[in-house]
């Protein structure tokens, strides 16, 4: 194996790829070839580094120079200056990584400092399409350990003692789930990985599959050993082509290396994995719908019990965990359950990956110990709110979750504290909102999503959420009444009680949670026909300041709706019933006399 | 096909060697080669490559080879600085691939800097002339 003097790591996550990192990768290969550095410098495409807002990202080792927002045209400079002459290209360095002329290493950058990467341990570190790099970082060692040193009961006991809870959202104790599946009678059992991830704004699972597919494969094999299963399925949405491709490559390599298939590592253990593609329906992330979809039917949920652990895929006992849950398993086996249980809070052990998105400077993928506060995440890791705006709330848990208002920013985040606040962990989407966000509008956004994605099997979800959406539309258009608010709440509670699956039962949560913390905003919409955040277009008024207006008439000439009238040299006026709120008059007014009013 | 844990371990060790220096620097020995225009013109590239080659050949762990820009003493190029934790840095001047062999053997392996290649030795020599 040749030794290179320098490694160039180009982020190959979906975020950076859409920012052109594929072209950058190719440009590096070309330029390095042209400069005759082929034998000295190796170029590697990795998984997501996490700092998606600053992508495309390139890291050059051994210096650990962290280049952000790299363009194709920068490649030549990096190769000529850094790789050929050893001069780090300062203008391209991630700005936080330079301090007093010193370049800080990756771990010292604020974005990474408060993070602890367990599930993401290899993302951005190894080449996900090279099994040997995974093995180099202790890959498949946990599988080897369980196969040779541990009984299935011991494995389950360790997972139980680690305190790991399901990272898909519900937070059910993983070890207990494994135990149920192991104890369920039956010779044929299945291990399933839920990689359907449909929450708006969430992409943790995708990034793990793209950046470290082998960790999921290894964990599924360990699960297979623990519960007595020979066959695993990864259910992943077809909308994640890069994740599917990396997973395919990884499964194939694992088979070649004898880490999947028969007689794994020279033992009698047999296990293989197949990929099942989903069409990207939100409901297929729900476990019973997911299994129905794998069986080849339309993905609709069914009532539970029976739970999958007893009667799952094709009626057989099935263990179903989410991608992130699996990614934690090999580390627990290698470092021990006590180590894992020492991280996090009393009832939520370990770390959680969040997709930090919305109105925050460092959008990206982060992993923090359970118990980290919202403030630490938004201010320290996220780098605060852009444009000097005020922080208003974070939304967690996607359409099944709710909001944490600014006043509760110091809440340590774990499964139970979030539930107590009326939201939930969910898969880990975390949407940051600033003062310009209307909370009624946010609730409407999530309801629109649920209405679109409802599978339609049960009336509360199919009809109820639609009725809720209609009321929200009425409120944001300025036609809501106080009775509407009551009706909205009543509907929300009855859907919660009567929907068939977890998705329907939680669909009203965004409304209930915003009503809980931002009721005054709903009331402003209903009683005063006003949107305090100035986001609901229908409720905005465009007004002319009489003091500032010089009566030039430019606004009236430009108004497409003929809503502005007046006499030259006297203040003009806007007829609110004709105004279409296009804002042209604001732009055209030479005296800045026209403005939007909430 | 990996048939045993021993085989897995062998692959792990081999692959890890290649990835060793993707770990953050700060620990271990750092060899910094001046690679500005003056350095390259004076022949710094073959010097650096010789370091890489020798380190690999001898399977030295914890040694990274890094480039830097102009160190500022162009007449002594190629310049190589060796940083060891808790020790004063050693600056080698007018380096050649042949000199590298000796530096690796005596300094990196046996912990004895090669004084006759260092900048202090060169300066004294010039002062005495």
From TrEMBL, chain A:
Presence of the UniProt keyword Oxidoreductase in the record: no
Entry keyword annotation includes Cell membrane: no
SUPFAM superfamilies (alphabetical): 4Fe-4S ferredoxins, Nqo1 FMN-binding domain-like, Nqo1 middle domain-like, Nqo1C-terminal domain-like, Thioredoxin-like
InterPro entries in UniProt: 4Fe4S_Fe-S-bd, 4Fe4S_Fe_S_CS, NADH-UbQ_OxRdtase_51kDa_CS, Nuo51_FMN-bd, Nuo51_FMN-bd_sf, Nuop51_4Fe4S-bd, Nuop51_4Fe4S-bd_sf, Soluble_ligand-bd
Domain 4Fe-4S ferredoxin-type: 540-569, 570-598
Keywords: 4Fe-4S, Iron, Iron-sulfur, Metal-binding
Transmembrane parts of this sequence: none
Homology family: Belongs to the complex I 51 kDa subunit family.
NCBIfam families: PRK13596.1
Full protein name: NADH-quinone oxidoreductase subunit NuoF
Organism: Anaerocellum danielii
Gene name tied to this protein: nuoF
UniProtKB/TrEMBL annotation, chain B:
CDD domains (alphabetical): TRX_Fd_family
Gene3D superfamilies for the chain: Glutaredoxin
Organism of this sequence: Anaerocellum danielii
Keyword terms, alphabetized: Iron, Iron-sulfur, Metal-binding
InterPro entries from the UniProt entry: Thioredoxin-like_sf
Signal peptide: none
Keyword Protease: no
Descriptive protein name: (2Fe-2S) ferredoxin domain-containing protein
């Amino acid at each position: 194996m040749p030794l290179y003097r320098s490694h160039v790591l180009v982020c190959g996550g979906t975020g950076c790829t859409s920012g052109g990192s594929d072209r950058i990768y190719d440009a590096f290969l070309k330029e390095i070839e042209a400069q005759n550095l082929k034998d000295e410098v190796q170029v590697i495409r990795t998984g997501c580094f996490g700092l998606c807002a600053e992508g495309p990202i390139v890291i050059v080792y051994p210096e650990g120079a962290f280049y952000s927002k790299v363009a194709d045209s920068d490649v030549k400079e990096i190769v000529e200056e850094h790789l050929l002459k050893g001069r780090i290209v300062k203008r391209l360095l991630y700005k936080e990584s330079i301090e007093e002329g010193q370049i800080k290493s990756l771990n010292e950058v604020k974005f990474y400092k408060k993070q602890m990467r367990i599930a993401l341990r290899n993302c951005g570190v190894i080449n996900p399409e090279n099994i040997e790099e995974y093995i180099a970082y202790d890959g498949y060692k946990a599988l080897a350990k369980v196969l040779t040193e541990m009984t299935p009961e011991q494995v389950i006991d360790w997972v139980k003692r680690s305190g790991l809870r399901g990272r898909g959202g519900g937070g059910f104790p993983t070890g207990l789930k494994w135990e149920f599946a192991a104890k369920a009678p039956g010779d044929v059992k299945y291990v399933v990985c839920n990689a359907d991830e449909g929450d708006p704004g969430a992409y943790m699972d995708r990034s793990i599959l793209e950046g470290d597919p082998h960790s999921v494969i290894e964990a599924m094999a360990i699960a297979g050993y623990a519960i007595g299963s020979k066959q695993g399925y990864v259910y992943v949405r077809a909308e994640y082509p890069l994740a599917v491709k990396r997973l395919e490559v990884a499964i194939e390599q694992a088979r070649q290396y004898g880490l999947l298939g028969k007689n794994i590592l020279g033992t009698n253990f047999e296990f293989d994995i197949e990929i099942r593609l989903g069409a990207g329906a939100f409901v297929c992330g729900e476990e019973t719908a997911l299994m129905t979809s794998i069986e080849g039917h339309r993905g609709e949920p069914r009532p539970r019990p029976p739970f999958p652990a007893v009667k799952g895929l094709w009626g057989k006992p099935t263990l179903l965990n989410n991608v992130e849950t699996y990614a934690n398993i090999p580390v627990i086996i290698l470092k021990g359950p006590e180590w894992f249980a020492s991280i996090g809070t009393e009832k939520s052990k370990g770390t959680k990956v969040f997709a930090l998105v919305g109105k925050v400077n460092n959008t990206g993928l982060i992993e923090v110990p359970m118990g980290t506060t919202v403030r630490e995440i938004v201010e320290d890791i996220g780098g605060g709110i852009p444009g000097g705006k005020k922080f208003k709330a974070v939304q967690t848990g996607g359409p099944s979750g709710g909001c944490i208002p600014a006043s509760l920013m110091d809440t340590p985040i774990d499964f139970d504290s979030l539930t107590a606040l009326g939201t939930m962990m969910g898969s880990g989407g975390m949407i940051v909102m600033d003062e310009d966000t209307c909370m009624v509008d946010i609730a409407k956004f999530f309801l629109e999503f649920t209405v679109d994605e409802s599978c339609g099997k049960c009336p509360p979800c199919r009809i109820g959420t639609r009725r809720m959406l209609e009321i929200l539309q009425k409120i944001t258009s300025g036609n809501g009444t106080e009775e509407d608010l009551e009706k909205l709440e009543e509907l929300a509670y009855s859907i919660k009680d009567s929907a068939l699956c977890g998705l329907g039962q939680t669909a009203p949560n965004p409304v209930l949670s915003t009503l809980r913390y931002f009721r005054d905003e709903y009331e402003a919409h209903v009683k005063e026909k006003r949107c305090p955040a100035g986001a609901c277009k229908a409720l905005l008024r465009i007004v002319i300041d009489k003091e500032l207006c010089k009566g030039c008439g430019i606004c009236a000439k430009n108004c497409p709706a003929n809503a502005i009238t007046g006499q030259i040299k006297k203040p003009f006026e806007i007829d609110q019933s004709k105004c279409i709120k296009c804002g042209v008059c604001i732009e055209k007014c030479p005296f800045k006399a026209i403005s939007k009013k909430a | 096909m990996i048939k045993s844990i021993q085989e897995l371990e062998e692959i792990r060790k081999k692959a890890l060697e290649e990835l060793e220096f993707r770990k953050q620097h700060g620990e271990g020995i750092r060899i910094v080669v001046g690679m500005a225009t003056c350095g390259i013109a004076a022949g710094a590239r073959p010097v650096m490559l010789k370091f890489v080659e020798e380190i690999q050949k001898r399977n030295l762990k914890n040694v990274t080879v890094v480039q830097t820009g102009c160190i500022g003493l162009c007449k002594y190029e190629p310049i190589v600085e060796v940083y060891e934790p808790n020790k004063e840095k050693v600056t080698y001047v007018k380096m050649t691939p042949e000199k590298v062999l000796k530096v690796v053997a005596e300094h990196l392996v046996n912990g004895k800097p090669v004084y006759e290649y260092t900048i202090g030795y060169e300066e004294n020599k010039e002062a005495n002339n």
